[in-house]
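User: Could you walk me through two proteins back to back? I'd like the raw sequence and the C-alpha cells for each, with a short line separating them so I can tell where one ends and the next begins.

Assistant: Of course. Protein one, sequence then structure:
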Amino acid sequence: MAMLGKRRAPAIRRERQSVKPAAKSDDGSLIVERLAHDGRGVARDVEGKTVFVDAALPGERVEVAIHRQRKRYDEAHIRRRLSDAESRVEPPCAHATRCGGCDLQHLHVDGQREHKRQVLVDLLKRQSIEAPDDVPMLVGDSAGYRRRARLGVKCDAKGHVHLGFRARGSEQLVDIDSCHVLAPPLASLLPRLRAQLESLEAPRHVGHLELLLTDADVVTVVVRQLRDVPEDAQRWRAFAGRERLACALRRGRESTDLVWLSDQPRLVTAVDGGRRQLSLGLAPGDFLQVNAEINQRLIDTLRAWLAPHGSERLLDLFAGIGNFSLALADDVASVTAVEGSNEMVERLRDNADHNGLSVSALQADLNDPGIAIEGLIDSHDTVLLDPPREGADALCRRLAQSEVAQVAYVSCDPASLARDAAHLLAGGFVLSHLAMADMFPHTAHLESLALFQRPERLERSARSADRERLRRQQSDLDSPVPGGKR
C-alpha cells in the first residue's frame, strides 16, 4: 500500500511474458476472450493471430467474416453467434447495429461501466501507475441524456435526403428517425427535421445540423449552410416559427458567420455552485458537456475531493464558459480562469458578472504555454485541468516542476490522462483520488476525474490557513463595537 497512487520504477530487465494459448473450437469458430479498450471483442485464430470482432462479448463463440487484414491482427464482424454471454442484452435502439453513435448497446449497462473502469485502471498501469483501490463510478441516466448532437445531411445522386449519424468505421450516413440517447425534445424533432430537409429548394447545400437543448427546454437548431439559398432561409424561418424553436444558419465553407432566423435566444445552462444556483450563458459552438447530470456529478465530486477551506488560489486551465471556475468560486479565496477562445473568455466574464462572482478571466494558447502561464502556475496552489482529447502534456511537465499543492484533472481520454499523470507523479505528486465518469452511456467513450496532491505542501497550506483564520478571529475580538462594549 505504500506505493499506492505512485508511479512504480520500471524494472531493468523484464521476463518475456508467456502468450496464453488461443481458445480453440472444433468447427473453426472463435471464442472471444475479452474486450478491447474500444469495446470490440478480442479473439485469436488457430494460428494465434489476434482478431478484433465487432459487437462480440467475452465468452461468446462466434463465426466471423474478416473485413480488414493487417500484419499483426485482423478485424472482423459476426456472421453467426453460436453462444451468448450472460451480459448480452437486446439493444434498446432500432439503429444500434448500423449507427456508429453507440457501440456498446449489446452489453448490459453495468457491464459497460465496469469495462470502462477497467480500461482506465489498465491504461494507468501501462504507465506503471497503480490506481487507488476504490475507483468510484459517476453514473446517471443511460437514456435521453444527450443535450447536444451533430447530425450529418447528405443528398444522394437520386436526390434522396439522408439524415443521421455515421455508420461505424465509415463515412456513410445511417438514416435515423429515433435516437435512444438524445434528450426527448431533440429526439422527437428528428422526423420533422427530415421532412423539412426534403422540402428545401437545395438540400445538397446543407452540410449538417447542430442540435442543442439548454435550460427552460429551449431547442436550438443550427444549419450548416454551405451556400446561401434565400428561399431555403425563409423555409427555415417558417420551420422555427411552427416548431417554436431557435434557428440559425452558419453560412459559408471556409470562414463562416452565424445568422439567426428567429429571435436570438439567451441560451443558458444551470450548475449548482454549492452555496447557490448559477446560470451560465453560452452560444452555439461553445463547449458544453453533453450530459448535464454527469457534469454536475463531476462538480460535486471535485468539491468533495478538494475540500476547500477558503484560502486556496485556484487556477482553472481550459476553463470554457466557466463550468468549473464559477461553480467553485464561492469555496476558494480567488479564481483565475484561462481559455484559448476569445469568445468563450468574454462569455466567462459575462457569466461571472451575471452571477456576482469575482473571477479573473484570461485568453492564452494552453497547448504552448509561455512565460505568462508559468507565472500564473507559480502564483497558485491549486490547478484544475479540463483539456481536450490531446491532454495537457506541456502543462503537466511544467506543473511537475512547480510548487503547486494539488492538481485536479478532468479527462475525456484515458490514454492522455495516463501519459500526463506519469509527468505529475515523476514530479512528486501522488494520485489521491480517481473516478470514472460515464458521460456517454452505451459507448466505449469514458471521462474520468483524478486528483494529484503533494501531501507535505497541503499540510503546510492547511497550517497557514489555520493561522490566518485564528488571526482574523482574534482581530474580530479585539475590534471595538458600537456603544463602547466589547
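----
Protein two, same layout:
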Amino acid sequence: MTRPRLPGTLNRRHFLAAASAALLPAPALAQSGPSDVDVVIIGGGAAGIAAARRIAEAKRSYVLLEASAKLGGRARTDDAFGLRVDLGAGGFARSEGTIATSAQGAGQSLIALPSGRRLFAHGREVREGAYDAFTAALGTARRDMLAAVDGGKDVAAALAVTNAAPAAASPWAATVAQFLGPLGCGRRLATLSALDLARRDAPPDDTTSPAGIGTLMEGLGAWLNVQKDAPVTLVTHGGRFHAVTLRGQRTPIRARAIVLAVPAPVLAAGAIRFNPGLPPRLVAALRGIPAGHLEQVAFLLPGNPLALQPNEAVLTAAGSAPPALLRGRINGSDLHVLTFGDAPARTIAEQGEVAALPLTRDWLRASFPTAEAVISEVVVSRWGQDPLIRGALSAALPGQGAQRRVFADTVQNRIFLAGEYVPVSGWGTLAGAWASGEAAATRALRLFGDGPA
C-alpha cells in the first residue's frame, strides 16, 4: 500500500509553472562597481538575486548591494558535523517561478523532496484513517477562516477556528493549530490574521539542492555585479534619480530605479533611512506584518532509529513535546534538522545551543520514546538575533490581513518592493520571494522602455 502523505499547505492545489528564465551570459553580468547605474538592488536574498538576474538579462547597468558577507538571506547553508546543512530555507516549489530553470541553466544540481509529510503519534506512524482525519481538519480550519472574513471583517485566526468548531472537535485540532501557527508562521493563531492565513496558497516544497539551498543561491548570484559587506544607510529621493549611501563609502550611488529586497522587519525597524521618509501607509503595512519566530536545530541521529527515508519530513501529534517539525536523514546521512516555532524559537535565538540541546532531547524523548539515541551536540540558526534578518517570515496581525496589497505600490515613483512578504497568496516561501524579485525588476525596467541602455 502506498504510504499516505500530508499536504504541505492549506490545500493541494498547484499552480502552473511560471515562464522560464534565460541563462544569463557572464559578459552581461560582469561589471565594475559603478557610481551611476540604472538600477540598485538592495538586499542579496532570493528576491534580490532574482531581480539582479532579470536586470542583467535586459542589459541594464545595475549593482546588487548585500550588507552581509554572503548572498542568500535566510537561505543559508552551514557546516554541521562535517556535513552541509540548510539552517533556513530547505527547499522550494518547482512549479512556482523560475528557480529550477535558473539553477539548471547555471549547472546546479537539483533533487526531488518526498511529497508531503509523515504523521506520527506516540512514537509510531498513524494509520491511513488518521491521515485523512488530519487532512480534513486542516481543510476545515481554512474554510472556517474564509467564512469568518467573508463579511469583510478580519479577525484572529484562532477566533475564527474556535467559533466555527463543532461541539465534538476533531482530535487533530490542536495539531492543526500548531501546524498552521507556531510551525507554519512562527506565531500562535491568536496573533495571526484569519484573512492573511486563509489567502495563503503556496504549494509545498518539492525540490532542493544536494549542496544546500544557500549554496544554490550563492551559485545563482556568482556572475552578478555584487558588493558584499555593503550596508545601505540612506536612500535619498532626488527627482529623476535616487542616491544610495553605503556605510563607510563617501560617494553615494545614483540610480534611476531601486529594487528594495530587504526583510520587512528590517524596514519596519528603520534600519535604512529614507529622505523623504517612506509613506505612512507603507510603514503601517510593514508594522502590521511582524516576523514570526522559527529556529532550526541540526543534530546527528545515527542508525536511523526512526526508520526514515532520505529528506523525509515528520510532523508529530500535539502533546507533551514542544511543537517541532523534523527533516530527517538529510541527503541520506545521519543529519537531522528540527524546526521550532514561537516561544521555543525565541529561547533558541536568545540562548543558542544551550537552550536548543535540552529542547531537542525533550522532543525526541516525548515523540519517539523507543528511539535509543543520545544527542550530545547541536548546531542552531539564530535568525531572531541577526540584525539583517530579525526573525522568520512575516505574517499579518489580526485586522491587518489586507495590508499586503500595499506592497505592490511603487514608492516615490522609482522604488519597487521585493521579498517573501510581498506576494498576497504565496507569501513566506522561497519561490514567492524569487518571483517577487523578478516582478519588481520587470516593473523597474518599464521606466526605461524596451531597448537596452
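The longest helix spans residues 128-148.

Let me know if you want the two compared in more detail.
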